[in-house]
Amino acid sequence: MVATPAHLRRSATALGNEEVLRIRNDFPILQQHVNGRPLVYLDSGATSQNPLSVLEAEQEFYEQRNSAVHRGAHHLAVEATEAFENARETVADFVGADWDELIWTSNATEGLNLLTYSFLNASLPGAAPEAARFALAPGDEVVVTEMEHHANLIPWQELAARTGAVLKFIPIDDAGALDLDAAAGIVGPRTRVLAFTHASNVLGTINPVAALVALARSAGALVVLDACQSAPHLPLDLKALDVDFAVFSGHKMLAPTGIGALYGRSELLNAMPPFLTGGSMITTVTMERAGFLPSPQRFEAGTQRISQAVALAAAVNYLTETGVDRIHAWETELGQRLVQGLGSIPGIRVLGPAAGEERIGLAAFDVAGVHAHDVGQFLDSRGIAVRVGHHCAQPLHRRLGLTATTRASTYLYNTTDDVDAFLNAVADVRAYFQA
Amino acid sequence: MSLDQLYQQIILEHAKARHGSGLAAAAAPEGASSGQSHQLNPTCGDEITVRVSVADGQVSELRWDGDGCSISMASASVLTDLAEGMTVEELRTVIDSFREVLRSRGKVPADPEVLGDAAAFEGVSRYAARVKCAMLSWVAAEDALGQALAA
């Protein structure tokens, strides 16, 4: 079991059902009925819902401040720029970063592509000398894990294919934990990048960041953390974790779609070649060449997602006011309730850590004799929203001998009644499909 | 629409019976021209390989191997029962008719005279996310048929 890092060890009181019922009042979408039943939303691992304060922040921006940022001297331009940059500070602070280390992206996928394309640019002839530390060549190695979401796998595959570097992976054991003994033999002097997920979107495992960072440091490799399933759900301090880069998506943490962030250590970001180029990211431009601004604007070409950034800051404020440690404690309880409940239903195989072991508030499972798509349809008929399929982790499913599973994932607005309604429905699935 | 209208009994039965399943274990019939097509639904990972064999202008055999949800497996099973013994033109007509119903979002009723047991999939057309499941084996069969005729 992974020990909680000291800086995160707090005696947090978990949210309770009564408080969650109050929280639910802030989420208009959760008030509806689906197929004649109250909506039970257990798909926040895919995308979360927005509280009124987030919806209002975006609307307020458009009603009061809408303008392009970082240009123009008029009142609205100043207001918009202030809102945009305040949002950056709020979100950076939320993940333990400095403001100039947080780059807006559309989502985590774009953040990872920004990184890999920047590294690719660094690998091309004519790249700036300071970019050499990011350049990959034949003989270099990039290491990921077997449990990665496709977003933290395919960009590295592409980068390796284009530079001649070799992509390796750290395997998992049957319980879904990373094989750290194997990792010690895989991460070595040739490793240039170690990219891994903080928490698995399928298994619910929380990976031992400190051990993996230590491995990477001893090999002189850069560390990239996929924080998609951690930033929304547990206190996150990227500087304390000592990773070089991290990505997360706003829509998984109460914000709208279209906004996410890439964190990078400032010293690294300012040495990296830009990914997208154009307006807003330059110093002096001639017909022949251009100079580039430092981070974050270095990586923010073109008009940005301003209202979405403002909305993400409102989401972060909502999470902070509720207490991320308390949310984490509550979701841990819900996660255990899911695993224990599923484990007591005949024909259900839960993936990942066993009951009693650390996991985030989600559980993916296989139902003997019933395809995940059918499980999801059955649950939907009872108003229960879950995710079905490979959850963008085909290699992980293949490793576990499966093609598709069903996943229930919780958030701060889920009650124990939600989990119980889900468990009761799952208990009826096999009978319905005559499995 | 209720779940039972989607999962009609005939669909649940075919999902288990899987008529025509077992392509890998059966060699293509001799004296017939055969074509084979593999189709994948990347959103859910459903996969199917369908082999269609044609002799004297008639579908002499349809065999498949697949892994997927009850809708996709039942659909392949029903297709097998329908297709075998049909002329090439009849199979094309029934595939076109099935596609029209499935893509109609519930607007085009299934004609049991044309579609037989496949009319049971009419309800699937109201579930946009499941249309591809039902169509998977039919798309594969259409492609395999084209290959058999070109061979």
TrEMBL record, chain A:
A Pfam family hit? Aminotran_5
- Which InterPro entries does the UniProt record give? Aminotrans_V_dom, Aminotrans_V_PyrdxlP_BS, Cys_dSase_SufS, PyrdxlP-dep_Trfase, PyrdxlP-dep_Trfase_major, PyrdxlP-dep_Trfase_small
Q: Which Gene3D superfamilies match?
A: Aspartate Aminotransferase, domain 1, Type I PLP-dependent aspartate aminotransferase-like (Major domain)
Q: Which SUPFAM superfamilies match?
A: PLP-dependent transferases
Q: Which UniProt keywords apply?
A: Pyridoxal phosphate, Transferase
Domain Aminotransferase class V, by residue range, is 40-422
The reaction(s) catalysed by this protein are: (sulfur carrier)-H + L-cysteine = (sulfur carrier)-SH + L-alanine
Quote the EC number.
2.8.1.7
Query: Which biological process annotations from GO are given for this protein?
Result: cysteine metabolic process
One function term, GO molecular function aspect:
cysteine desulfurase activity
Q: Magnesium: is it a keyword of this entry?
A: no
* Cofactors, names only: pyridoxal 5'-phosphate
Superkingdom as given in the UniProt entry: Bacteria
Q: What does this gene product do? A: Catalyzes the removal of elemental sulfur and selenium atoms from L-cysteine, L-cystine, L-selenocysteine, and L-selenocystine to produce L-alanine.
Q: Which NCBIfam families does this one have?
A: sufS (TIGR01979)
**Of which family is this protein a member?**
Belongs to the class-V pyridoxal-phosphate-dependent aminotransferase family. Csd subfamily.
Classification via PANTHER family: CYSTEINE DESULFURASE (PTHR43586), CYSTEINE DESULFURASE 1, CHLOROPLASTIC (PTHR43586:SF8)
Protein name, please? Cysteine desulfurase
* Source organism of the structure: Arthrobacter oryzae
UniProtKB/TrEMBL annotation, chain B:
Q: Where is this region: Disordered?
A: 23-42
What CDD domains does its record include?
Answer: IscU_like
* Pfam families associated with the record: NifU_N
Tree of life domain: Bacteria
One MF term in the entry's GO annotations? iron ion binding
The annotated regions of Low complexity compositional bias extend over 23-37
InterPro entries xref list: NIF_FeS_clus_asmbl_NifU_N
Which Gene Ontology BP terms does the record give?
A: iron-sulfur cluster assembly
Q: Which residues form the NIF system FeS cluster assembly NifU N-terminal domain?
A: 7-133
Q: What is this protein called?
A: Nitrogen fixation NifU-like protein
